[in-house]
Amino acid sequence: MLQIAETNTETGAASAQAIRPRNRAGTERAIFIAARTLLAEEGFQGFGVNAVARRAGCDKQLIYRYYGGLNGLIDAIGADLGNWVKDRIPEDTGGMFLLTYGDLMEKLAIYFMDALREDPLVCKIVAWEVSQDTPQVRRLTESRTKALSKWLDKMRGSLTPPKGVDVATTNAILFAAIQHLVVSSAVSGQFAGIPLKSEKDWEKVASSVRRLVRAIYG
């Protein structure tokens, strides 16, 4: 890391002292992390080139140079969200011997719930999906949805669901329910009178999710 003066391109003067990596790769990463964090904290209302540059401690022209501007930066975040499931949920089954499709869905549903609880940005995107319809939100949502679908297909392997079950609709409802509970927890700490604050509360949710999956898939 190297301490250098940030140059304000509008005034041509050094406006602040900032610490940022010396090489391009490090600077790009610093900008990306700043953008992702800012988006998680303030949403698109406070998300702009100037705000990202301040958070990253760099000249805003570097955002244009490395990402082509704000849209390119959003695309980069979308690509990262495309890897969200893969990065946060193990592809192995934790040593669990999976005999049925129900075994698989039980495991994946709990993995998904735990991962979502730990990622504030994805929680916000889930909330935006039902409250906003903008090109930025659609871009981020599409990346996440495609990744989840590919992940489910990969994890399923040769396991097949019971006959007569509409898998696509059933799994969509299952994961939508988990998403809504996690978002409700972040907003109010409860849903429909059910507390969603402590680990004990979430253990009850996990137990109910397992029962539902078993009732559907056996």
UniProtKB/TrEMBL annotation:
DNA-binding region: 48-67
One Pfam family, short name: TetR_N
Gene Ontology molecular functions: DNA-binding transcription factor activity; transcription cis-regulatory region binding
Amino acid composition bias (Polar residues), ranges on this chain: 1-14
Region annotation (Disordered) ranges: 1-21
Keyword list, A-Z: DNA-binding, Transcription, Transcription regulation
Record's keyword annotation contains DNA-binding: yes
InterPro entries: Homeodomain-like_sf (IPR009057), HTH-type_TetR-like_transc_reg (IPR050109), HTH_TetR (IPR001647), Tet_transcr_reg_TetR-rel_C_sf (IPR036271)
All residue ranges annotated as the HTH tetR-type domain in the record: 25-85
Protein name as annotated: AcrR family transcriptional regulator
Taxonomic path: Bacteria, Pseudomonadati, Pseudomonadota, Alphaproteobacteria, Hyphomicrobiales
